[in-house]
Design goal:
two-stranded antiparallel ribbon, 43% helix, 113 residues, 2 helices
């Protein structure tokens, strides 16, 4: 009985190896065909999309530009509205008798509704 399993396993392994060889051959033929098309039409890499071009970029490659200023007081204190409220901005609101909820009074034009 153990011999039957060994024989079946060996046969499956041989079939798998044959399929892998066929897949590699087909892949090679496909690459050759694509290269012929690229050469015939003088295509550039920048004109093509490759699967590996769309992989997630590392954090260093994802850098964003500076955030837009969302709030600006008459005396020039600016805050992007991201993260904790700037101390100077909060102090200005309090000195004017306003609360942090009144911050929308100082929205920059691009953020006004």
């Amino acid at each position: 009985m153990d011999n039957d399993f060994k024989t079946i396993y060996d046969n499956l392994r041989a079939e798998q190896e044959a399929l892998n060889a066929k897949m590699q051959s087909a892949r090679g033929d496909a690459i050759k065909h694509v290269q012929e098309v690229i050469d015939a039409f003088h295509l550039l890499r920048s004109e093509l999309k490759f699967e590996d071009d769309h992989q997630a970029k590392s954090p260093a490659e994802k850098r964003r530009g500076p955030a837009s200023i969302k709030y600006r007081t008459p005396n020039g204190i600016e805050w992007t509205g991201k993260g904790n409220m700037k101390r100077e901005f909060r102090d200005y609101l309090l000195s004017q008798g306003l609360t942090p909820e009144d911050k929308d009074l100082f929205l920059t034009p691009q953020f006004m509704k």
